[in-house]
Write a structure and sequence with these properties.
The protein is mainly α. About 50% of the residues lie in helices and about 0% in strands.
């Protein structure tokens, strides 16, 4: 049974929200499909014999149908977006005095998304809002039998390159990504109750903290939760599962000899498409402008609706548009990622049987290019929020300073910065990763002598620029 707070949220128009910042299944079966998700693609954009534009490839079964299917990935993007929107909507209701949560209420509501159950909740309307409206109205319209917790790093351990209960880095004592998230859920639960009782914490300057999800020492739990979910699912699953090649029968070593039973794609084609889905690109992403990628949706077929499965960008694909648009040198991070994903999928479409060693090596090259571009988007985004955090810190004590903005920007930098460890093909060394998190710490420096902390953030920023080959002019303006 859903908790009363969630019923109120889902019934309210304010719960609609699109995330444009730019979201236990052991997966131990032995079938030829590397993903245990049952795909229920409801895309009705194309007739059977007319493929969509862009990232679309005819099935080798002769049906003329598009063999690309990654609705499970789109579904998880929606869940992450809706979880973030729930926190914002709860804040609005607390301010209005419309909710007085009891212990466990908020944790239960967050678990609704984290442990989503299609059997009980599939017919509920999702909260993603676009103009024109989305083609899919309910969660079941997008996909079914999917959740977040089962795909979080550490919970899909067959393909994880590390034991995340022992090797998770970035938050001392966290234990694992799931343990850290559940700790933050509990903190949000307690903070919402306190806020409703007019017991909000105070900022270092003595003012009341503006939102229940921001702590007195500058943690923005809305951003931390959202970003850890994004990188702990999308980057982890994309890089360490569907695009990796260290487990026989999984990822790039999946079967490509024939279409999978009951499907119109091979297991290898499907793994590659799921990797692209976690990157977050729409089908026509390759020809979208920077602004369209930033806006995150386009009615490509002019049917008066946005198909969330093919006409919406998510997370990293959205952020690529932001970073490329702001670049001083004209970076092409979004194009680089799309071109690599497209080239790899085109290779698979043209290879009508098991890949030769040479073809597999070529596919690995496309994978390396795609993951490098994807990780560069992550690095550029961390650089962006490091710059924002430094700028916030420089305003401390001045009229224009905003404690909530400072907490938000630091938390986005910290949350995104968790992501590098989930890519087994990362360009960053363990030592560089540890140094980045040492510079960020576990809260922004807000009081006392801030010069050393500021210098550390700028050094971490410049180190990211060096690792990923960014021009300093881009590092400065991002």
């Amino acid at each position: 049974m859903l908790r009363p707070l969630l019923f109120l949220c889902l019934a309210a128009a304010a719960c609609s929200g699109d995330d444009t910042d730019a979201v236990t299944d052991g997966d131990t079966d032995t079938d030829t499909d590397t993903d245990t998700d049952t795909d229920t693609d409801t895309d009705t954009d194309a007739d059977a014999d007319v493929l969509p534009d862009g990232y679309a490839f005819a099935s080798r079964d002769g049906s003329g149908t598009d063999s690309v299917s990654n609705d499970g990935q789109q579904f998880r993007h929606v869940l992450i977006s809706d979880l973030k929107s729930y926190i914002a909507d709860l804040q609005a209701d607390l301010v209005k005095g419309a909710r007085f949560p009891k212990p466990g209420d908020v944790e239960g509501d967050l678990s609704f998304y984290f442990e989503f159950d299609s059997a009980t909740s599939g017919t509920i309307a999702h909260g993603v809002s676009t103009t024109p409206a989305t083609l899919q109205v309910t969660y079941d319209d997008i996909s079914s039998d999917k959740d977040l917790v089962g795909k979080l790093a550490g919970n899909d351990s067959v393909t994880d390159h590390e034991d995340w209960s022992k090797e998770f880095v970035g938050w001392p004592g966290a234990g694992s990504p799931e343990a850290l998230l559940r700790t933050w859920f509990a903190e949000l639960d307690a903070a919402a109750i306190a806020f409703a009782n007019d017991e909000a914490p105070t900022a270092p300057d003595g003012s009341s903290v503006e939102a229940f999800y921001i702590t007195g020492d500058g943690l923005d739990y809305q951003q931390l939760v959202d970003k850890l979910l994004r990188v702990g699912i999308a980057m982890s699953q994309g890089a360490d599962d569907y695009l990796d090649d260290d487990v026989k029968g999984k990822g790039l070593l999946a079967d490509h000899s024939a279409v999978a039973k009951g499907k119109n794609y091979t297991a290898l084609e499907h793994a590659w498409d799921e990797g692209y889905g976690y990157f977050g690109g729409a089908r026509n992403y390759g020809v979208w402008t920077h602004q369209q990628r930033v806006d995150s949706f386009v009615d490509d077929n002019n049917d008066g609706a946005i198909d969330l499965l093919v006409e919406k960008t998510w997370h990293s694909a959205n952020n690529a548009g932001k970073r490329d648009d702001a670049s001083a040198t004209g970076t092409t991070l979004g194009d680089d990622a799309y071109d690599a994903f497209f080239a790899g999928r085109e290779l698979l479409a043209n290879a009508t049987t098991t890949l030769t060693p040479a073809e597999l090596d070529t596919l690995r090259g496309h994978r390396d290019d795609a993951l490098l571009a994807w990780e560069k988007v992550l690095a550029a985004t961390v650089i962006h929020y490091l710059n924002e955090t430094v700028a916030d810190g420089d305003l401390i004590g001045q009229k224009g300073y905003s404690f909530s903005d400072h907490a938000k920007h630091w938390s986005e930098a910290k949350g995104f910065a968790f992501g590098f460890q989930f890519n087994p093909h990362s360009s960053m060394t363990d030592e560089q990763f540890a140094a980045l998190h040492a510079a960020l710490g576990t809260a922004p420096a807000i009081e006392g002598d801030l010069s050393a902390y500021r210098a550390g953030l700028l050094a971490a920023r410049d180190q990211l620029g060096t690792i990923y080959g960014f021009d300093q002019s881009d590092v400065d303006v991002w």
